C-alpha cells in the first residue's frame, strides 16, 4: 500500500461504521423484482473503489456534528448517482476495464448497463424525495443535471485538439467536481448550517473534486495499469483532451504539437510512446500536478472556516494526499 493509500485509509477509518450503515441502505434499496437489475448493480458497487463521494457526505456530517440517520440515506443516494454515471460512461467510452475488473458493459452488454444506470438514477430520486427537504432535492437535481451537461460537453470535445484549459476545466467541474460539491453541501443542509458554512463546504467539495480529476488525468500518462485499474492511454484512445496534453501542446515544438494533434484527432495509441515522451519532456505532468495542488490548497483553505475536530482533520488529510497522489 502506498503512502497516499495509507493516508486515505486513515481518513476513512473514522467513518468505517457509518460506511457499513450506508452499505446496509444500499443493499436494501438495490432490491428489485427484476433479477438483472440487482445483478448488474451489485457487480459495479462490489467493485469497490475509494467511494470518496459518499465518504465526503459522512465526513462532512461528522465535521458539522450531524448524527441523524438521513446521512446514511443521502450517502447512498450519492453513491447511486455516481454508479449510474459510471455505467453510462463506460458504454459511451466503450471501456473494458475499471478498477482492475471488466466493466459491466463488457460482461452484461450495453443495453443492460444503460437501463440499470437509469434504474439507479430513478431509485436515487425516490430516496431523496423521502427526505422531504426541498433544498436537498434541489441540490441533487441540479448536480445530476450539470453532470449530464458535462458528459455531453465532453462528448462534443472528443478529438478536438483545439480545446483550451478553460474548456477542459469547464468539463471536469461539471462532470466530476459537481457531485463532490453536492456531497459536501448535503451535509451542511442536513446540519442546518448557516449559508456561509454551506458555501465553505461546497467550495471544499468542488476544489477536492477538481483536484481529484486533474490528478486522474495525470495518471493516464504517468501510471501503471495494475495500480490504476484501467488501461494506460485510455483517455487518448477515446479522444479525450486532458490538461497534460493541452500543456504539452502549448510548450512543445511545432513537430511535437503536430504529433499530439494527430493522436488526439485519430485516437491512435500507436503514437502513445511518443506522446508520453513529449508530455514528460515538456514538463506538462509537473505543471498539471501543480494545477491539482492549487485546487487542493483551495480545499484546505475552505476547511479553515469549519469546526476543527477529527472529522475536519480527516477531510484535511484527503485534500493533502491529493498533492502527491500516484494511484
Automatic annotation (TrEMBL):
Entry keyword annotation includes Magnesium: yes
EC number of the protein: 2.5.1.90
InterPro entries: Isoprenoid_synthase_dom_sf (IPR008949), Polyprenyl_synt (IPR000092), Polyprenyl_synt_CS (IPR033749)
CDD domains documented for this protein: Trans_IPPS_HT
Known catalytic reactions: 5 isopentenyl diphosphate + (2E,6E)-farnesyl diphosphate = all-trans-octaprenyl diphosphate + 5 diphosphate
Gene Ontology biological process terms from the UniProt entry: isoprenoid biosynthetic process
Domain of life: Bacteria
Cofactor: Mg(2+)
Presence of keyword 4Fe-4S: no
Keywords: Magnesium, Metal-binding, Transferase
Gene3D superfamilies membership: Farnesyl Diphosphate Synthase
Gene Ontology molecular functions: all-trans-octaprenyl-diphosphate synthase activity; metal ion binding
TM annotation in the entry: none
Pfam families, per database record: polyprenyl_synt
Family: Belongs to the FPP/GGPP synthase family.
Name recorded for this polypeptide: Octaprenyl diphosphate synthase
Organism: Polaromonas naphthalenivorans (strain CJ2)
